[in-house]
Amino acid sequence: MQKQNTKGYSEKTSLTIGVPIHWERHFLLWDDVTGLHSHEPAHPAPILILVVAGKEGLRRLALELDQISEKLRPIQPDKMIEDFISGHLGWVRSVAINPSNNWFCTGSADGTIKIWDLASGRLKLTLTNHIGQIRGLAVSNKHTYMLSAGDDKQVKCWDLEQNKVIRSYHGHLSGVYCLALHPTIDILFTGGCDSVCRVWDIRSKTQIFALSGHDNTVCSVFTRPMDPQVVTGSHDSTIKFWDLRYGKTMTTLTHHKKSVRAMAQHPKEEDSFASASADSMRKFNLPKGELLHGMLSQQKTIINVMAVNDEGVMATGGENGSLWFWDWRSGHNFQQAQTKVQPGSFDSEAGIYALT
Questions:
Q1: Nearest to 342 by CA among 350, 334, 354
Q2: How does 250-283 read in b/e, with b if 16+ C-beta sit within 10 Å?
Q3: Nearest to 356 by CA among 55, 60, 15
Q4: Which residues of 42-69 are buried (b: 16+ CB within 10 A; e: fewer)?
Q5: Residues 1, 13 contacting (CB under 8 angstroms)
Q6: pLDDT tens readout for residues 178-222
Q7: Are 272 and 253 in contact (CB under 8 A)?
């Protein structure tokens, strides 16, 4: 990512939420007795650009860290929302950012994928090939490829040098809800309403495995270079670890009582991950899947998405438009925010669907 100061984008940073989010590095110091924390922020004061994607489209917030209250605050006190990025004609269901941090892409219920400039938020390109909601997007860090998946059962590989689809992956029997790219090899994972996570060879379009075992929609997936190389969450309230060598289940976690719609792994600490459902948030170790601790389910909504940055700041987005920030290590919720609907819209239109 790039860091925004008052003159423009220049310094390096490491957190992306919604899409472009820029945050000065800081440290959390915790008191073992009181459980309270304090910040030691670097200078100058951090500036954060947050784009939240959901039912109401794309919203960009300009925030900074108040070094006294240790809270994020709007740069303009009377204007939490800096601007509303319009362009899609339907709910924005997915977001991904390219590895070079120059642009981000969004997938919508209008069936289009739009590519936006990261710094200015201006629309650069619109891609059309899907005929339904686009629920999953991923950008390759090795090739000029973007992968997309949607309710039309289609999984597509786009060549961004030609701006067209070069491969389609056929096999899902219903809508595709999530996808993930393996970090080291050219393998793609997709999960959907057919209760299966499918494993694809990106280049040959061959389906390597159909990982079956869930009893309901596979709605979240992440992958890692070591076993278990793929982890899936489902509407059946379970999380499964998979052996990629044999295409079989290694472990099934049953700690949640409701749909596991979101999971996140720390980008540097590969020995743990967090998961979220409507009733709770939990953190597990890897590779065994032992429960480390739960987090208070104060958000009291369906959590659709979650993400964590290098410094251990985790964010969760809810169906009611709530955006909460947590400390990764302790599970402490240190700040809350709420999106606002556009004039003339219902409060139920505030849901957050994309957070990465």
A1: 350
A2: bbebebbeebbbbbbbbeeeeeebbbbbbebbbb
A3: 15
A4: eeeebbbbbbbbbbbbbbbbbbbbeeee
A5: yes
A6: 999 999 999 999 999 999 999 999 999 999 999 999 999 999 999
A7: no
Per-residue pLDDT tens digits for 274-330: 999 987 899 999 999 999 988 866 788 899 999 888 778 888 999 888 888 888 988
Q: How far apart are CA 90 and CA 179, in angstroms?
A: 21
Closest CA to 208 of 195, 225, 229, 189: 189
Task: Give the model's confidence band at 14: pLDDT under 50 very low, under 70 low, under 90 confident, else very high.
Answer: very low
- Neighbouring residues of 289: CB distance < 8 A, sequence distance ≥ 6: 239, 241, 251, 253
Distance, CA of 167 to chain centre = 24
Please tell me the predicted confidence (pLDDT) of residue 118. 80
Reading the block at residue 307, the tokens are: 């993400």
* Total H helices, total E strands in the chain: 0, 33
- Residues 156 and 163: beta-carbon distance below 8 Å: no
The four Cα atoms 53, 146, 183, 220 give a dihedral, to 10 degrees, of: 40
The residues, any chain, with a CB within 8 Å of residue 60's CB and separated by 6 or more, are 20, 49, 50, 51, 81, 82, 83, 84, 85, 121
Handedness of CA 309, 17, 299, 72 (dihedral sign): positive
Q: CA 258, CA 238: separation in Å to the nearest integer?
A: 8
State pLDDT tens for residues 212-251.
999 999 999 999 999 999 999 999 999 999 999 999 999 9
Residue 123, amino acid: L
Q: Cα–Cα distances in Å, from 29 out to 26, 35, 36, 39?
A: 10, 10, 8, 6
- Sheet strand arrangement including 248-253: 218-223, 230-234, 239-243, 248-253
Return all residues near 185 (Cβ < 8 A) that are at least 6 apart: none
Q: Residue 40 above 50 pLDDT?
A: no
